[in-house]
């Protein structure tokens, strides 16, 4: 085959929807752990043909990633055979993803004739089937994509949620799609609302209504309800009833048992949870999740015994040491089965600290920091645990405080940031209790007031810190709303001008030393500053205009024109170069598409799904936050953008905190040395 024909073939392949085109890169997947879980799932789901067909498909792709093309082909053919056997006349739609995988696999095997054969089969299927979803994808494709994303990694959970949501627009009463959407919401939503207003609870009830015998859904609903038992006693009773029903329906299903164990642990019934989890290990011995859950149970038992020892004359030393030993054993198993398990490795490091093996603990913390930074997740959790390690086992409170503050700065999950704030609050209270005039206590209190936006209280505390001999580091005291509009070749002007022209601003324009255009005005009675920044020269410009950096923005608008081909690898490289602004940048970012009229009436979701891996990467980094503006935006487009900006500010609760740019290339790390 000529090189031109080969390239043309590859172009056709990239238009397919299958595992090979879903950006499932090896760096985002713990392959060994996924392979183990899929092997267990295939064994457990024999007799559930629809799921086994999907499992063999994903299993084959993992085998391909391992370089075993022959085994990959065997599993794809198994999937095809099962689909034809059990779906009869409807098998073609079930095999869209499978045939795409087969086409790609034969291409990689350089069997181009077979590759073209499967491409022709797919073209024939496409002509037969009506593609009614907004993206033009068949619901069966969205179904398989959603379940695959749920199985692979937490990084893909939001993508799974969108797949199920879109498929349900076409098939709203499909029980399997409703179940997938419910599970995706359960794994992604950390709602603080009551169960009455909970989207996750509502969707779980909907899925159970369509399939009342799905024991996994029953237990997930019980866990969500039990998290809010303080609201209603009836919800506590319902939770117990749901657990009893689930165990009656499917008592041997390890997924059901492990979730029931989670429910028991949540209720404080640790011995019951341990018994259930150990039973589950008999059928799923390679589950890192189960070993981690067992470790948490023994950690909880140890804490209870330690508290009882403080309040009585009983000596529980032997029982406490046994719980610590079992906790470490199961954590060791968890990280050996899943090398990318950041949370388990962090907990293992801390438990070695409790066992007074300080050297081992520090080595594991070093590894945990490396994993967290590589995966760009749980960085704040590692900082918090390392701070506790420094505070309690190394007796270095100063370094502990630095790590708590750094953990809060780098948080990607509000719950992890709250852990850091709670630890800082306890230190401040403890120091003030010992010495009401402790300067460091006032310094910490000033920081806590500052991040809440309580300017006057923060200044008062900082002044007292100075009075008692502690000089606070320079920290922002500005409570204005600050927005950065970052774009290529001036695309950001539309967003800035839209806000200024439509949102009631009094515009005052200034240009900083870096040539940045700074727009200032009033919206809803509050001062707002918009800084227009060219992405390609961002670092150079910001170095010259440090007043823009400190304090940093509350919201960053990443603006791209739909009339230009801007979603390229070059653009991705530029965006990755924004690392000098810190990892929390993405938590404050909204992608804004301008020139929306270029869509010609189509939905922006259609453009996104066809936008390629760079756009998919960008939206995942921004937690799927995006908005569309026309070249001449309507009032509703602008008001909706303003609402999204306010919502994001409310969600984050603090502006983006940025380190000095000059430190970018030195990579000064707080990791083990404590240098900031």
From TrEMBL:
<dbReference type="Pfam" id="PF13181">
    <property type="entry name" value="TPR_8"/>
</dbReference>
<dbReference type="GO" id="GO:0051607">
    <property type="term" value="P:defense response to virus"/>
</dbReference>
<keyword id="KW-0547">Nucleotide-binding</keyword>
<dbReference type="Pfam" id="PF04548">
    <property type="entry name" value="AIG1"/>
</dbReference>
<dbReference type="GO" id="GO:0005829">
    <property type="term" value="C:cytosol"/>
</dbReference>
<protein>
    <submittedName>
        <fullName>Interferon-induced protein with tetratricopeptide repeats 5</fullName>
    </submittedName>
</protein>
<keyword id="KW-0802">TPR repeat</keyword>
<comment type="similarity">
    <text>Belongs to the IFIT family.</text>
</comment>
<dbReference type="InterPro" id="IPR027417">
    <property type="entry name" value="P-loop_NTPase"/>
</dbReference>
<dbReference type="InterPro" id="IPR006703">
    <property type="entry name" value="G_AIG1"/>
</dbReference>
<dbReference type="InterPro" id="IPR019734">
    <property type="entry name" value="TPR_rpt"/>
</dbReference>
<keyword id="KW-0677">Repeat</keyword>
<comment type="similarity">
    <text>Belongs to the TRAFAC class TrmE-Era-EngA-EngB-Septin-like GTPase superfamily. AIG1/Toc34/Toc159-like paraseptin GTPase family. IAN subfamily.</text>
</comment>
<dbReference type="GO" id="GO:0005525">
    <property type="term" value="F:GTP binding"/>
</dbReference>
<dbReference type="InterPro" id="IPR011990">
    <property type="entry name" value="TPR-like_helical_dom_sf"/>
</dbReference>
<feature type="domain" description="AIG1-type G">
    <location>
        <begin position="490"/>
        <end position="664"/>
    </location>
</feature>
């Amino acid at each position: 085959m000529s090189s031109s024909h080969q390239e043309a073939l590859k172009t056709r392949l990239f238009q397919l929807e299958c595992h090979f085109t879903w950006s499932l890169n090896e760096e985002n997947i713990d392959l060994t752990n996924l392979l183990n879980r899929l092997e267990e799932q295939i064994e457990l789901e024999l007799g559930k043909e629809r799921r086994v067909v999907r499992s063999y498909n994903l299993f084959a792709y993992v085998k391909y990633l391992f370089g075993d093309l022959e085994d990959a082909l065997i599993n794809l053919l198994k999937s095809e055979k099962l689909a034809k056997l059990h779906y009869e006349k409807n098998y073609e739609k079930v095999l869209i993803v499978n045939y795409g995988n087969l086409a790609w696999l034969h291409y990689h095997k350089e069997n181009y004739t077979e590759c073209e054969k499967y491409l022709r089969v797919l073209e024939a299927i496409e002509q037969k089937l009506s593609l009614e979803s907004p993206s033009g994808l068949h619901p069966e494709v969205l179904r398989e994509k959603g379940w695959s994303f749920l199985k692979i990694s937490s990084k893909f959970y939001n993508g799974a949620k969108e797949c199920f949501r879109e498929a349900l627009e076409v098939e709203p009463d499909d029980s399997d799609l409703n179940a997938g959407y419910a599970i995706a919401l359960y794994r992604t939503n950390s709602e603080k609302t009551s169960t009455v207003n909970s989207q996750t609870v509502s969707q779980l009830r909907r899925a159970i209504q369509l399939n009342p015998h799905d024991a996994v859904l029953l237990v997930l609903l019980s866990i969500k309800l039990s998290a809010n038992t303080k609201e209603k006693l009836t919800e506590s009773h319902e939770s117990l009833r749901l657990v009893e029903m689930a165990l009656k329906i499917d008592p041997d299903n390890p997924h059901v048992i492990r979730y029931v164990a989670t429910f028991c642990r949540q209720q404080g019934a640790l011995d019951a949870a341990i018994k259930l989890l150990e039973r589950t290990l008999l059928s799923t011995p390679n589950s890192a999740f189960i070993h981690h859950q067992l470790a948490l149970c023994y950690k909880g038992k140890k804490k209870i015994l330690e508290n009882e020892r403080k309040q009585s004359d009983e000596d529980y030393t032997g029982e406490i040491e046994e719980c610590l030993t079992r906790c470490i054993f199961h954590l060791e198993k968890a990280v050996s089965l899943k090398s990318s398990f950041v949370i388990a490795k962090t907990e293992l490091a801390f438990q070695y600290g409790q066992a007074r093996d300080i050297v081992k603990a520090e080595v594991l913390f070093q590894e945990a920091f490396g994993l967290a930074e590589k995966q760009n997740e749980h960085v704040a959790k590692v900082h918090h645990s390392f701070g506790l390690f420094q505070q309690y086992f190394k007796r270095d409170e100063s370094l502990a405080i630095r790590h708590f503050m750094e953990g809060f700065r780098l948080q990607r999950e509000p719950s992890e940031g709250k852990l850091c704030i709670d630890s800082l609050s306890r230190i401040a209270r403890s120091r003030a209790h010992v010495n009401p005039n402790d300067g460091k206590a006032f310094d910490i209190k000033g920081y806590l007031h500052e991040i809440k936006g309580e300017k006057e209280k923060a200044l008062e505390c900082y002044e007292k810190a100075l009075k008692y001999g502690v000089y606070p580091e320079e920290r922002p005291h500005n409570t204005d709303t600050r927005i950065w509009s970052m774009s290529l070749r001036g695309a950001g002007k539309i967003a800035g001008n839209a806000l200024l022209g439509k949102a009631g601003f009094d515009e005052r324009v200034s240009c900083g030393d870096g040539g940045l255009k700074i727009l200032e005005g009033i919206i809803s009675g509050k001062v707002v500053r918009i800084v227009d920044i060219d992405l390609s020269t961002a670092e150079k410009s910001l170095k010259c205009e440090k007043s823009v950096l400190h304090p940093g923005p509350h919201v960053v608008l990443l603006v791209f024109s739909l009339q230009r081909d801007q979603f390229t690898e070059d653009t991705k490289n530029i965006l990755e170069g924004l690392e000098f602004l810190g990892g929390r940048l993405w938590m404050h970012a909204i992608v804004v598409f301008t020139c929306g009229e270029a869509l010609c009436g189509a939905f922006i979701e259609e453009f996104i799904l066809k936008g390629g891996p760079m756009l998919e990467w960008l939206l995942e980094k921004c937690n799927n936050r995006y908005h569309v503006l026309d070249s001449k935006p309507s009032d509703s487009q602008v008001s909706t953008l303003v609402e999204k900006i306010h919502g994001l500010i409310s969600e984050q609760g603090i502006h983006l905190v940025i380190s000095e740019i000059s430190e970018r290339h030195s990579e000064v790390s707080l990791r083990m040395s404590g240098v900031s």
